[in-house]
Structures are given as structure tokens and as C-alpha cells.
Amino acid sequence: MKPRIKLDGKKLAEAGDIALTTSKWVLEGTGPDGKPMKMEGQSAEVARRQPDGTWLFVIDNPYGLQ
Prior knowledge:
The protein is about 0% helix and about 70% strand. By secondary structure, the chain is mainly beta.
């Protein structure tokens, strides 16, 4: 498939060590039939700040709140 993904992420809200984010994403590649394919959507995520300051997703819905 040789996928390529583009993300445009935004933080909507942050409360302490929890954040609500959303991302518009586009995934492009080559389908099993050899033809170009494209998928896109808007995701919703909840992340938690870790003790070292990094963020990890706790909930990830790649298709948002449909």
C-alpha cells in the first residue's frame, strides 16, 4: 500500500493532565488492485499527560463523533 498520512491536529481543551484533541486526516496509498486510494476523516481523542511530560492517547476514535 505504501501509505502516506497527513494530520492537522488541534487541542480543543485541557484540564490538568487530560486533553481533548481532534485531527483532520487524509490517508493515501495504493489499493490491492494497484489503483490509487484515498481515505479521510476527522478523529476525536482523549490524551493523558505522563510523568515524563509526554502525552499518550487513552481514547482514540479515528472517525470522530459520528
